[in-house]
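Can't attach files on this board, so I'm pasting raw text. These are the components:
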Amino acid sequence: MAKDNVVVIGGGPCGIEVSRNLRDMGYTPILLEQQSELGGHLRKWDRLFPEGVEARKVLKELTSDLKGVKWFTDVNIESIQKSRKGYTVNVDTGMSFETKALVLTTGFKLFPAENKQEYGYNIYERVITNADLEQFFKTRKDSRIQNPKTIGFVHCVGSRDEKACNRQCSKVCCATAVKQASEIKEIFPDATVYCFYMDLRLFGRSYEDMYLNAQRKYGVRFIRGRVSEVSEDIDGKLYVKAEDTLLGKPMKIKMDLLVLMTGILPGDSTRPFAEMLKVPTGEDGFFTPKDTILEPCVTKEGGLFVAGACTGPKTIPETISEARATAIQVHKYLS
Amino acid sequence: MIYKGKQKIWSDYQKEIPDDHWFYVRSCIRQNFFPASEVTFLRILRDELGKDIYETPHHTTCGGIAYHQECIPQETQMTIIARQFALMTEAGYENYACSCITSFGLYCETLETWHEMPEVLERIRENLWKACRREFNIPKYLAHSSDLVYKFRDEIAEKAKYKLVNKETGEPLKVVEHIGCHYAKMFPSKGVGGAEYPYVLVGMAEKWGGNVIDYPERRHCCGYGFRQYHVKANRGYSISNTHKKFESMEPYHPDFIVTNCPGCPYFLDRWQYVIAEQTGKTYGGNGYGIPVLTYEEMAGLVLGYDPWDLGMQTHQIAVEPLLDKIGVKYDESKKYEGTGGKPLPEPEFPMNIRCC
Amino acid sequence: MIDFGYSLSKSRTLRIDNLDDSRFKALHKLEPDAYKCIGCGSCTASCSAGVFTELSLRKILLSMQRGDEKEYLNQLQSCMLCGKCMLVCPRGINTRHLILSICKICSIEK
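---
Top answer:
Structure tokens for the assembled complex are below.
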């Protein structure tokens, strides 16, 4: 029995997993990805918290069996028409796809660190981002990282910040910072590592262990205070200013490397799709599903589904679960 | 330092500055602190570049210092500004340039207030009409006078007699640029280069041969900060903040500091004397201070104007070491010769800082 | 009275229910954002007076909530109202306005 096509837009972990599950249920998923490879942000990451599973392995697992999934990379969506039967998706390569159900898994983007000008990303040599550091963990190559002796992590860069027009917590960066602080300490055991935080939000199972490990095993020092500004000294080192709020004194520290934990924003395609398909978005710019508690993957438009980080920051396991749940919702809708 | 990163920011913060026909208003205090700077601005714009710059003696204070010390309410201050705009309108101008950074910030704040709250604008129009039967148009363009010098930096470079280069070594002079806080910190989009890495003075200094240094406390206030200085009990803050900047720039051995605000050059200049007398420390080498220039003085030097015509004898910190580095010709005996040969009173010399 | 060589220790526990936070409540009426502060310290870290004095807006707000009048009145004296804290506050609090409202409530001339 030949079942329907289902178009899935966005080939990150969520889109891949939705497609694989639909395929398993006998549908023909058509997975469309803008980049030239599947995998989304996972491609750029080295290891995943809390246990440090290699991102490469997860991605390999996800993409190892795509038989029956029609996937296309380097495609941009030109337009989507809604008809009584469903949707017609037209892409820039000239193809168009008919589908009764459309799944948006368009993901997120990282806050552009250079927008927080006072932190000097792209201005000061030794200021990098969480994404840059993952790249370094993968390749062990980055001219900005030269045996640093003092390393700082700045939490909440572009999240929980009304001045950066993003009031929301990005949820995963605290855990990422703790993970990265431990990892970098492993590479540079002589370095002193500081984390500047406002609140530590380590919400998941065994994340607290990761945090304790960072303190006990790696000696990462946690300073409760938000970095106010960064400048460069004559020797190229960074001056970082914050308040040590627990002591109640302004502080200044010289650093060899500063890592900005950039927050999570809706992907660039979120707004155009929201307008094209009339999906509501919240004040934070992410898609708002029909019911955030009971129907987190369903929209008010029949046949239109949203899953993964396009409805808010998520961890990989959360994304995977949501992808599987969405496949079932799609199946229920189509049968 | 990644220069390209800065260039990216600079290109993001560019503002439109018309070529000609400006209504120009002076600062209340600059004429006392740096008496020839505004005259030099007019000399450069009018005589060197042939621009039409209009001035009127009817211009008054913008009310800035009173407003910032909470002596007058915003409505009064906005009405004062409305009157200045009326003078511009009556003179037939649309482009408004002011010499003072406090005023510039206040003009930006006022225009923004009127933009956000048109009912306030209507009330101010009414206030002004009741008070002095005047009407006004909002300027089409608002600029600080340093924006204009920045705009014409290429033309000035073409006419330059000197470069900001050490004559002996051929090395570019090391320049500290200091921007008045109210230039762009409140409205980053209104300043050339934005608030974090302003370009307005960097553009001039680099064009004329200098090398700008970026030291850790570059963003910090000069120390004036209105209440910090004006209330004597708070004056310790003022000098402490200035001191913090000097300590931070010291390792770079700057040749001079250039500023675009009325207060900043005054405090950066005069506090060096007080710091020297309080602590014995000087920052300019050989017991001298670091000369502090206004951008008009810097432009005037580059154009080969006589430093005494630029009013540089009124600085606390001796400028002669800088003049010698550049190779500017000057007559030491004319230093205290006023206009028409009338001698100016000679200052007393301080104990701990060399002033020639 | 007999000296036993030891005595009753005085409790240093803060009795939050007995504290006078009426000024903070009044402030909250004028400035609903007063509760938005998460004490991140950005204001203190960028404060031009905080480097030289005890001034910390974060602590002023906390001491008002705790009824520690001496503490916040003392700190308020150091504020120059430059507004730098307003530029950095991640919660978007109009800190300068907030301080002026505190002064109004405490009848301090700034």
